[in-house]
Amino acid sequence: MNTLPQMLTVTDHNRGFIDMTYVYPVVSRRAGGVSVGINLNPNNACNWHCAYCQVPGLVRGAAPEIDLELLETELRSFLHALLHGSFMEEHVPVEARVIRDIAFSGNGEPTSSKAFAEIVERVIVMRDAAGLVDVPIRLITNGSLIDRPYVQTALKALAAAGGEVWFKFDAGTAADIQRINGIDVNPETHARRLALCASLCPTWVQTCMFRWDGELPSRELVSNYIAMLELAGLAALKGVHLYGVARPSFQPEALHLQQLSAHELKAIARQLNEKGLTLTVSP
Ligand code: SF4
């Protein structure tokens, strides 16, 4: 799944919002606010198959046709509930009663929706109409479809609206990417996509690290990964969100994965820091 692991989804309140098709609330004390999630993959379909993916029943595929009117209705009503209803009071701790972001982050790859550019435009309009111009819109993506013209159109619109991208990059060799992300891709190709993405919209890299069958990420794995970020161009990146596997994977590969300690993750973060990258670390 594309969300970061520290998020605590509201699961036992307010069925009306939980039962929406595309929009879901995520309340995070740690991140200090409410994230308005937009899931364009209610069919649990992704073109990747990451070993750590938290989507139950994940299948290969693309987003289904999106009911744009329903998406608009859900987003408008949820923003209204946050701003003018009792949602915050009833479900959000006092210290987290702010809208942190609107995030395209769901049960698959959001940019696989052919309507993605139109959806981004509509979400920007609705955000602004709700008086939330300063709330950032984030795209959490595996970055595999950046070459598609409609995705580039959406990225430019996101950038103009103050948004940003979190772009998945976990390893720097084809073999490691195949093992971790379940996809056959040349790492140089993915680095070029990252560079293209960063040229169109402010971009963070999101990277998940863990033990595999008890083994730490090797020095070689980390240095190959850093080499790919260098190939993309470190100066163009906002930084790296480095995180571990705090929540269980729902994939068969889960049995290979073990969480790194905070100390182990920080050791990897130091190597990235030495390259001058800004880091956030979430074990
Ligand atoms: S990119 Fe990976 S983690 Fe994200 S939804 Fe697809 S398979 Fe899951």
Question: Would you give an account of this structure?
Answer:
It is a single chain. 35% of the residues lie in helices and 19% in strands. By secondary structure, it is of the alpha/beta class. It has a single domain (23-281), classed as Aldolase class I (TIM Barrel). Helix 7 packs across helix 8. Residues 3-15 have low confidence and may be disordered. Residues 1-2, 46, 48-50, 53, 55, 58, 108-109, 142, 168 line the site of iron/sulfur cluster. Residues 30-275 form the Radical SAM core domain. Its cofactor is [4Fe-4S] cluster.
Break the fold down into its secondary structure elements and pairings.
Elements lengths: L7 E2 L5 H4 L4 E6 L4 E6 L6 E2 L12 E2 L7 H17 L2 H5 L7 E6 L11 H14 L7 E5 L7 H12 L3 E5 L5 H8 L5 H14 L2 E6 L2 E2 L6 H14 L6 E5 L13 E2 L3 H12 L5 E4 L1
Parallel strand pairs: 3-6, 4-5, 6-7, 7-8, 8-9, 9-11, 11-13
Antiparallel strand pairs: 1-2, 2-3, 10-12
Helix pairs in contact: 2-4, 4-5, 7-8
Protein name: Radical SAM protein
Pfam family, one: Radical_SAM
GO molecular function: catalytic activity; iron-sulfur cluster binding; metal ion binding
The CATH superfamily is Aldolase class I
Query: Structural class of the secondary structure composition?
Result: alpha/beta
Helix content: 25-40%
CATH topology: TIM Barrel
- Kindly state the mean pLDDT as a whole number? 92
Percent range for β-strand residues: 15-25%
Radius of gyration: 18 Å
- Principal-axes shape call: globular
Q: What is the number of helices?
A: 9
**What is the terminal-to-terminal distance?**
16 Å
SSE succession: EHEEEEHHEHEHEHHEEHEEHE
Q: Which ranges are low-confidence, i.e. pLDDT below 50, for 5 or more consecutive residues?
A: 3-15
User: Which CATH-level-2 architecture?
Assistant: Alpha-Beta Barrel
Question: How many strands in all?
Answer: 13
Ligands bound, unique: iron/sulfur cluster
Q: Any idea of the CATH class?
A: Alpha Beta
Q: Number of domains in the coordinates?
A: 1
Q: State the major sheet.
A: 9 strands, mixed
State the strand order across the main sheet: 1-2-3-6-7-8-9-11-13
Protein name: Radical SAM protein
Domain Radical SAM core: 30-275
Cofactor: [4Fe-4S] cluster
Keywords: Iron, Iron-sulfur, Metal-binding, S-adenosyl-L-methionine
